[in-house]
Write a structure and sequence with these properties.
The protein is an alpha/beta fold and 359 residues long. Helix content is 46%, strand content 17%. A hairpin with a 5-residue loop joins strand 8 and strand 9 (145-148). 40% of the residues are buried.
Length: 359
Amino acid sequence: MKIVVYAICKNEEKFIDRWMDSMSEADEIVVLDTGSTDASVEKLASRGAKVYSEIISPWRFDVARNRSLELVGEDADICVCTDLDEVFHPNWRTLLEKAWKPGTSQATYRYTWNFTPDGKEGVVFWYEKIHTRHGFRWVNPVHEILEWIGEGKKGFTVNVEGMQLDHLADPTKSRAQYLPLLELSVKENPTNDRNMHYLGREYMFKRRWEDCIVTLKKHLEMPNAVWKDERAASMRFIGKSYSMLGKKAEAVLWYMRAICEAPHLREGYSDLAMLLYEEQEWEGVIYFTGQGLRIKERPRSYICEAEAWGSLLYDLRSFAFYKTGRTEEALYYAEKAYEISPADERLKNNVLILSSLII
């Protein structure tokens, strides 16, 4: 099979060698440069990529992705869309070819979206930006996704076990364009529940609490907003917004709704436990951290936050046990928290202090 990697680029010079090394298992690499002012074009070409230049105005990610896909040769069997701040772990091609069966149209693989300061995985989910050359197009101005437009029924999707893509983002890069593009997405397609959720989340990121609440309540009212994981996330973000506005009772209510909506996810328990910690409701912290820790399997969707799967639940639980006079239990969970985050000096000191109290 002929496998082609395609991407869009703008001022990515510092990532090019790392990216090209990672993508070199492909038969061909095609890049659409959308206006670089550094040496990206020259460097990509010197490394063997086929580089084309075009300004996309007004800027939309879906238009840029579709234009870059159009540059891929008609003879490609599998198209792999990545960004230049992403890298595959070695041997990805072999894993992909092994999983790709006749009738496949798309593939999913494990994707680490970010990393914690100590280098551990943060948000992890399964991505699906690998597809056949024909029958797909990108849609949505931002948070773009692949849409089937081919003749007949779309083929099946395979999971490529062992295939791993890491996002090694540039923290200096602005995401200022996301909010206006999300507002445009909702304006263009007001019935798209996914875009409504993303818009509400973006308002939360911008600390526009009231806008977040209004938008995500709209999301929850949409008849096609039926995915429980995403609905629970909207409820949690509403809860956080109420909490930031000082309306703690409303926040508790929405966190409880999120837990009831998706009791299989840790995040609702984690958020509520954190709020109860701030309110010094120690027995509540113990209960909800315990419920969260009963969930052992990390989901494959993007509704999966680093804090809930890190040391936080153990840390909160340890503190609550200490505050209620149960030092041995406090030490046990302090040690668990420290095992997960051994570079955290505060967690280390917690273990030392609690150990001294028991001795």
